[in-house]
Amino acid sequence: MTTGLYSVSFKEARGNRRLAFAGDLKSFETKAFEAAQQAGTAIVVDVWASWCPTCAAQEPIIEKLTSSPEFSSVTVFKVAFDKQKDVVQALGPQRRSTLI
User: Fold this and answer.
1) Euclidean distance between CA atoms 81 and 87, whole angstroms
2) Which among 34, 44, 56, 89 would be 20 to 30 A from 97, CA to CA?
3) What contacts 45, CB < 8 A, 6 or more positions away?
4) Which residues form the Thioredoxin domain (predicted)?
5) What span, in angstroms and rounded, lies between the C-alpha atoms of 29 and 45?
6) Residue 21's pLDDT is what?
7) Is 25 a domain residue?
8) Domain tally, the chain
């Protein structure tokens, strides 16, 4: 899994259909998110920050989730807390790392 990626569009993330990076609220509402919903896959939205120790502790779990065949029906969208404030505000997480 790549970390530290803040504004990658879904077009750039299409190579890995199970891991997408939301660039802003507009791209978060694109066809990739809708396609995951329509496909009936479980969707995990990981709101994270590079300075957050809880986020760092969760990273191996999310890595396993995106690479394990048992979780092939899970799509993970990562949202950078510091860089994507419009998405964070729309989702509502506060001070802690949040999985939705």
Assistant:
1) 9
2) 34
3) 76, 77, 79, 91, 98, 99, 100
4) 28-91
5) 13
6) 45
7) yes
8) 1
